[in-house]
Amino acid sequence: LLSVGVLQPRKNVTGLLSAYAAARQQGLSAPLAVVGKKGWLFDEIFARVRELGLESDVRFTGYVPDEDLPALYTGATLTLYPSLYEGFGLPPLESLACGTAVVVSTAPALVEVTGEAAPHLPANNPAAWAATICRLVADVAERQRLADLGRARAADYTWERSASIHLTAYARALG
What we know:
The chain is of the alpha/beta class. The protein has a single domain (about 1-175), classed as 3-Layer(aba) Sandwich (Rossmann fold). The protein is built from eight helices and six strands, in the order βαβαβαβαβαβααα. Strands 1-2-3 form a three-stranded parallel beta sheet, with no helix packed on it. Strands 4-5-6 form a three-stranded parallel beta sheet, sandwiched between helices. Strand 5 (about 100-105), helix 5 (about 110-115) and strand 6 (about 120) form a beta-alpha-beta unit. Helix 1 runs parallel beside helix 2.
């Protein structure tokens, strides 16, 4: 299991840890890798790991260069992104492009980016996250279905398409 993002409150890593602990209690054995540099209030995250007794199950990698992320996404069973709010949400899109299923929060930007290619769960519902994680880890066919939808979804997001949309908007604005 993989989570990518700066370690800060809006990324809801503490909520993810609660969900992961609940999933472990339901029999999940997969480790969780948390990738990202330390942000503000990161100490709360490490305190939560200790509080939940997850020191041997959760691995913090720190910062990972962009060019190394595809290998992590590809090697993951699932990418988990429980962010409280986002402007866009690049890690879920990157994961989809790499063919790895994602689970995201119901933050509007994440719902828009992933569409039907990912389950959308309330960020502050660890029980729902735990149940979904356990279900998807066990259901290879469903993960593959989501991965296939995800690759198609990610293919819609290209720099060329983005530039074209922006140029069209500028042309309309200029009359």
